[in-house]
Structure to design on (95 residues):
């Protein structure tokens, strides 16, 4: 079982779901954090696979990723423009 920082459930969930009205962003963050912890490295996954893993539409997953990147909660990188994205989950509250 993945270990989740208390901040994620105590603060971030309320912020993303309640304040930002973006519950899918919270699900994406939570799933990516758990997967990154399992792999011990950044997660490379397509939007379609990410959406299927969480149970949402591809467009919802894309919008959630964009929001998390804008909020600086994840770092998204690609080797080329058409490459599958690689996601690194950030924990800015730990600095």
């Amino acid at each position: 079982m993945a270990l989740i920082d208390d901040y994620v459930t105590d603060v971030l969930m309320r912020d993303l779901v309640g304040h930002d009205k973006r519950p899918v962003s919270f699900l994406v963050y939570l799933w990516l954090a758990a997967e990154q912890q399992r792999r011990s490295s950044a997660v490379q996954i397509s939007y379609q696979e990410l959406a299927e893993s969480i149970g949402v539409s591809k467009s919802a997953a894309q919008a959630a990723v964009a929001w998390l990147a804008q909020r600086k909660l994840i770092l998204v990188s690609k080797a080329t423009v058409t490459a599958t994205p690689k996601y690194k989950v950030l924990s800015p509250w730990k600095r």
